[in-house]
Amino acid sequence: MWRLAWPTVLQNMIGGLQGIVDHVMVGHYVGFTGNAAIGVGWQIFLVVVVFISSLFTGMGVLVARCAGANEPEKVNRVVYQAFLTSVVLALGVLAPLGYLLAPRLLELVHAAPEVRAAALPYLRTMFMCSIGQLLYFMLAGALRAAGDARTPLRIGLWIVGLNVALNMVLIRGLGPIPGFGAQGAALGTSIASALASGVGIWLMATGRVVVHFSRSMPKRPDWGIIRSLFRFGLPAGVQGVAMNVAGVMLLRFIGSLRYSAEAQAAYAVGYTELFSFITWTSVGLMGASAAIAGQNLGAGRPDRSVRAVNVAARFGLMIAATIGALFLLFGNQLLGFFGLHDPTVLALGRSLLRYLSVSGLFITVALTYTGGLQGTGDTRSPLFITLVSQIGVPLGMCAFWQSTGGLDASRIWLAIVCGHVTRCLLTVGRFYQGHWQSIAVHVGEAPAPTKVPIPVAAESLPVSAANPENPS
Q1: Distance of alpha carbon 136 from alpha carbon 142, whole angstroms
Q2: d(CA 184, CA 295)
Q3: Which of 334, 338, 412, 462 has the fewest Cβ atoms surrounding its Cβ within 10 A?
Q4: Which DSSP string corresponds to 46-114?
Q5: What's this model's pTM, rounded to 2 decimal places?
């Protein structure tokens, strides 16, 4: 579990540095309105891109099962079909619709006029240039599910390094290159992701990683596989949309407060960036638990699927507790690092970090057990749990307090914690019901013949899709 988890955890923590770099530079060169613009724009972008990239969850389910059953050719076919689908969605759907709908999406969050003016070019750039990020999500998910977590880590490091270099030029300007402000952060992220993802596709095409696109592979769309991708992926996509819609609606409630711009800046830095060290780490553990749970179920060892998820949750609790302690001890310093020095923003940010130090313990457990459910093919249960815990609970609480005239920032922060606690309890309970053990997975248009599961020893997982005789 740890051999697969640590590169993914490190990759996601380093990936979170991309947003940190954006906010630090924008905070110093543009001001807190720039921080709010990036926070609002990124939250809206996530709502759409998470749904579009839902097929990668379905891809992970199929890849992990096929890798656990020692079927590398099926692994390669599934990933290639996911690649074709992601290119079509990025260029044919996300880019044109995102550009046209960006102004209306910004109106939904009640952003202040100065925040909306800075967020519009940022959001449009993210939509138009999203293909690099989608391809990276596809690469990382495919390789991780097949047992290789180190290559996505290396690609992620390339993205962060390129992003830092580009942001230093594009945000503030250099020589004849003008400063683009918040839009420069979107340009840097998009260019870095596209270049590094291009290298990742080249690695697959030349057979240098465990998943590769061979010349003998059918190059046409395989509608049977594509249907399977969306069968398992769409519930996860709707779940992701629900979570991010909840974030957008919280921004709407925050926008109704007296100090809306200051509260949105505190939320953008505290929740979107600093809390991401917990959430992105937990997402990494979720991916690792999904891969190992799916591989073991494909190998006929559901008992090891349960053990993997339990181990992942313990790792997550240790990391979340450590980061939460840093929030409590060094709140002012962390906020000041982002260029937040306004007294109102600092007070709101410190209050938010105190709540998040508790919330992180529950969300990390919820995400690791979500990985166990999704990796074994149960992508519907997390959807219904999300609708209750991420929309019903926090938004219901905020709506009640707003209707009674008692809505303030601290109560919005409390609603976030209550939502995470609810999600944790429901997810753990659903996993231990054990219904995921009976879910069947097929690659192709027709169900494959029934095969006897191959018992896999403890030391031989995760399985390498390219050479299933050897552990990765």
Answers
A1: 10
A2: 41
A3: 334
A4: HHHHHHHTTHHHHHHHHHHHHHHTT-HHHHHHHHHHHHHHHHHHIIIIIHHHHHHHHHHHHHTTT--HH
A5: 0.73
